[in-house]
Amino acid sequence: MTGFLRGSATAMITPFHGNGVDLEAFGEMMEYQIAGGTHALIVLGTTGEPATMTEDEKEALIRYAVRKAAGRVKIVIGTGSNNTQKAVEGTIRAEKLGADGILAVTPYYNKCTQNGLVAYYKAIAEATKLPVICYNVPGRTGVNILPETMAKIAGIPNIAGIKEASGNMAQVLETARLIRGKCDLYSGEDALNMPILAAGGTAVISVVSNIAPAGVKELCDAVLAGDLKRANECNDKLIPLSKACFIEVNPIPAKAGMNALGFRAGTPRAPLSEIEEPHRAVLLNAMKEFGLEVKA
């Protein structure tokens, strides 16, 4: 299927406090995204640290996000796992709780073959009527969805697209060629948002847009409108901020950046740690140069 996402989507951080997830703080971040023109919010993606959350915490966050969004923005829930049955169960739960779509990262750690990837996404897609986005991030999972494999997966009726974060533009272009008209291509790597959109991508799923939603939206709008001059201007401005947002493992800098904007983002959960001071200085400087009002 095509047409599920267009423009900018944000891979949301999850704010934690001593008693669990800070839902009120998450709601404030949602309003910031909506005001910035973000098209969709990805909840419980990698940036949301779901690997360190309990099932009760996940369910409470999904319920809250759906209720708070109230149809103003699409809510896409991350349900991928290295256990296919667990991914299926999470997908069923997300649909019951009112999600608009599913994001499913490839299996990790125990890995699988390319045939295993097809079977994995088939099982998830058949468990729901919702659009399903495949997420290819081999740097984190050790599993790579090859273009020919994605072409097979794209034939599953409710596969909406692939979030591509392989970092390999030659592979991205071949995937784009093979899935064109069957499902959509989404950028999953902020540094490559512009070229992936220019290659036919319809949306970005961004970490940087946690901090600068309006800036990422402006880039998307420019590329999708075919205004490459304006797109280059937007991209040139975003590059230093994007580099700073990945100066340490995601979402460490994104959380530090949101705290600096005055949001109660809290700290990452172990084994992730707080940003190191030299890196924090680089991040805050990049935020100021971008024009953001840093409060801390």
Written description of the protein model:
With 296 residues, this protein is of the alpha/beta class. It has one domain: TIM Barrel. It has 12 helices and 10 strands. The strands form 2 sheets. An 8-stranded parallel barrel has the order 1-4-5-6-7-8-9-10, surrounded by 5 helices. Strand 5, helix 3 and strand 6 (101-105) form a beta-alpha-beta unit. Helix 4 (114-126) runs parallel beside helix 6, helix 9 packs antiparallel against helix 10 and helix 11 crosses helix 12. The longest helix has 18 residues, at 228-245. The model has no long low-confidence stretch (mean pLDDT 97).
Short description:
With 296 residues, this protein is of the alpha/beta class.
The largest sheet is: 8 strands, parallel, barrel
The helix/strand order is EEEHEHEHEHEHHEHEHEHHHH
Mean pLDDT: 97
| Major β-sheet strand ordering | 1-4-5-6-7-8-9-10
Write the layout of secondary structure elements.
Layout: E1 7-11, E2 16-17, E3 20-21, H1 23-35, E4 40-43, H2 55-69, E5 74-78, H3 84-96, E6 101-105, H4 114-126, E7 132-136, H5 138-141, H6 147-153, E8 159-164, H7 169-179, E9 184-187, H8 193-198, E10 203-206, H9 213-224, H10 228-245, H11 252-260, H12 277-290
Parallel strand pairs: 1-4, 1-10, 4-5, 5-6, 6-7, 7-8, 8-9, 9-10
Antiparallel strand pairs: 2-3
